[in-house]
Design goal:
InterPro entries: Fe_iron_reduct (IPR008090), FhuF_C (IPR024726), IucA/IucC-like_C (IPR022770). The protein is an alpha+beta fold. The chain contains six helices and six strands, in the order βαβααββαααββ.
Length: about 250
């Protein structure tokens, strides 16, 4: 059952989710943000010739010789952190019907000086026929994250499986947090979202759901990635808590 709430879905993003309100739905950029962030059209990130220049400041954070695959994986994780909690709340609890394509003309992405993603902005609502959650989830995966992952993979050589693992982990965490914060009020909507987003092996059109099977349950109820996120290849980093690699891995 969809819960009636206005957009943006800030009423539902409480507790740790409060710090994840980094998507502006149909709101103008604030002046102070415009002054310190670089606003781009996210579609640039799927263009192989443009990605190196766009992400050069981010790559420079880690020093010469750092595995570019791990850099791309870290950037994709940060992108997921600023987009998925808010978008999933909007889709699952607020029945938001906006245009989720990476190349949507209304979409803008804010990058910090080091090119780390900061905020996603929808300039206006897109006119579209009413769509089910499964249809909107497919649009987010196929028309948004898949082109983004392709651009990052061509730039770095990282396996798309690593990047989809990032998405799966953040989807799982976001839905778990929504349920943890609001319990019975959102249980049915969160269960429905989990069934569409994580449990279903296929998308709305019958094609493969790219995040299905990226995680496996542990005996304690937590989730473990099936593919390492490569964080341990970054300077000063170790294996993350959900890593499938043995703890002895250097």
């Amino acid at each position: 059952m969809i819960l009636a709430r206005p957009i943006p879905p800030s009423d539902w993003m409480t507790g740790v989710l409060a710090s994840c309100q980094t998507v502006d739905f149909h709101l103008p950029a604030r002046q102070e943000e415009t002054a310190c962030w670089r606003w781009i059209t996210p579609a640039f990130l799927r263009e192989p010739l443009l990605v190196p220049d766009l992400l050069a400041p981010f790559e420079a954070r880690f020093g010469e010789g750092t595995d570019r695959r791990a850099i791309a994986a870290r950037w994709s994780h940060l992108y997921g952190c600023i987009t998925l909690p808010s978008l999933l709340t909007a889709l699952a609890l607020c029945d938001w019907q906006g245009d989720l394509r990476l190349a949507a003309p209304v979409l803008r992405l804010a990058l910090a000086e080091d090119a780390s993603p900061q905020r996603l902005l929808f300039l206006s609502a897109a006119a579209s026929p009413r769509r089910s959650l499964a249809e909107r989830w497919q649009e987010l995966m196929v028309d948004h994250f898949a082109p983004l992952h392709q651009g990052l993979a061509e730039w770095s050589g990282v396996s798309p499986r690593v990047l989809w693992g990032n998405v799966a982990a953040l989807v799982c965490w976001s839905l778990d947090e929504l349920h943890r914060q609001h319990k019975r009020r959102v249980a049915a909507a969160v269960d429905a979202a989990r069934a569409v987003m994580l449990a279903s092996p296929t998308l709305y059109d019958g094609s493969a759901n790219p995040v299905h099977g990226c995680l496996r349950p542990r005996p304690d109820g937590s989730q473990q990635r099936k593919v390492c996120c490569l964080s341990y290849l970054l300077p000063g980093e170790t294996l993350c808590p959900s890593c499938p690699l043995p703890p002895s891995r250097p």
